[in-house]
Amino acid sequence: MAEKLTIIGGGMTGLTAAYLAAKKGQKVQIVEGSDKIGGLLNTFEIGGNQLEHYYHHFFTQDAELHWLLKELNIAEQTGYYNTSMGVFRDGKLYGFNGIIDLLKFKPANLFDKFRWGLTSLYLGKVADPTKNENVSTLEWFYKYAGKGMTNALWKPMLDIKFGPYADKVPLTWMIGRLAQRLNSRKGGDERLAYIKGSWKTLLDTMKAELEKLGVEIITNEPVTELMVENNQIKGIKTKSLEISGGKYLVTIPSIFFDKVKGLPADFGGKNIEYFGAVCTILELKKSLSDIYWMNVADDGFPFGGIIEHTNMIPKEEYNGSHIVYLSRYFAMSEDLANMNEEEIKKVMVPPLKKINPEFSEDWIKNVFVFKTNTAATVCDLNFSEKVPACKTDIEGLYVANMTHIYPDERSTNNSIRVAAEACKVMGIDTSDVPYGASLSGKIGF
């Protein structure tokens, strides 16, 4: 008789775990609280095509995601693109793609730039992320990269991404981030990958394959209770279902655990905080800039990143429209956490004229706003001590969620890595999943 596995949460971690378990002959069901699977990978229609609510691309070194695309027979739908980066600082846009651009960056002097280059290379190529968890990124930069580039670049970027937690970000996280970016570059060019037809291609194919493998996908059923007897999980209850037997893997963000009866007070990183994120997506008649990824390092802007999607994917894919993401992380204590869609639009759009003085709201064809309260975990010093063990103290109950991405950055690839490690802990053979450059799935397994 096939073993039974119930997965709570239908994001990428849950979907991948279901795929891996079902491939090995287990009877699998996914229980998702919302009306569709996919989580942060979901898309909408714009310019006659599909686009992610929150910008997505992946890296050439993302071995786990490349493996999954090949497994699903959609690897040939991957495109690779040279992209550009820029920094908006002191009211001016600077390219940031190599040595020449660095030398042209006026907010810092030559010595500051030299120190910045050396320290960035050290962190991205040499430093050991496992030995720097108790070190503040910001303090390290001030000490080794110097005040010039730290004040001109690093501090503004940490402030806009981490808000009140900017001085608590462990150096471990920054090492992982720089390693990811540097390994995706050849010379000064960064090659990024994207799936033709958007991540909807991946989700639709994944769903079809899961159904072919006999996986039952249940949506609109948030879990309300875990039934535990003698420290062993017997089943779960949702708003209208009761499921019993087998093992259970929880993949939902830990901020939802308070809504589930029967969980111990310290279960699965229950007290870990999360950042929210908002993406305001503009469909424009004209291009805002020639930069794909622009970091906004000046004070007073409501967004920290401007990602012009059609500077990676040709605008012809969107009926000639230019697609721009205005991105901002936020702490739950910030005003943005409570703003509605119309309020967000009013805040986000007007400052674009400071970025491009020619910008006019007449350029706008459509504006879309997407907001989540579970964009990333708040990773502070020694965060690994908060990451829960995948195998819980309750027999038959396992957890693998966004906390296990640490010390890496949230990504589709890292979710696959975490799912593979969770399956391994549950006794499922995942030896066919390759190891890439991911730092995820190493803590708690």
TrEMBL record:
Domain spans labelled Amine oxidase: 12-357
Coiled-coil segments: none
A Pfam family reported for this protein in Swiss-Prot or TrEMBL: Amino_oxidase
Regions crossing the membrane: none
InterPro entries according to UniProt: Amino_oxidase (IPR002937), FAD/NAD-bd_sf (IPR036188), Zeta_carotene_desat/Oxidored (IPR050464)
GO molecular-function term, one example from the UniProt record: oxidoreductase activity
SUPFAM superfamilies to which the protein is assigned, alphabetical: FAD/NAD(P)-binding domain
UniProt xrefs under PANTHER family: AMINE OXIDASE (PTHR42923:SF46), PROTOPORPHYRINOGEN OXIDASE (PTHR42923)
NCBIfam families documented for this protein: PRK07233.1
Protein name: Amine oxidase domain-containing protein
Source organism per UniProt: Arcticibacterium luteifluviistationis
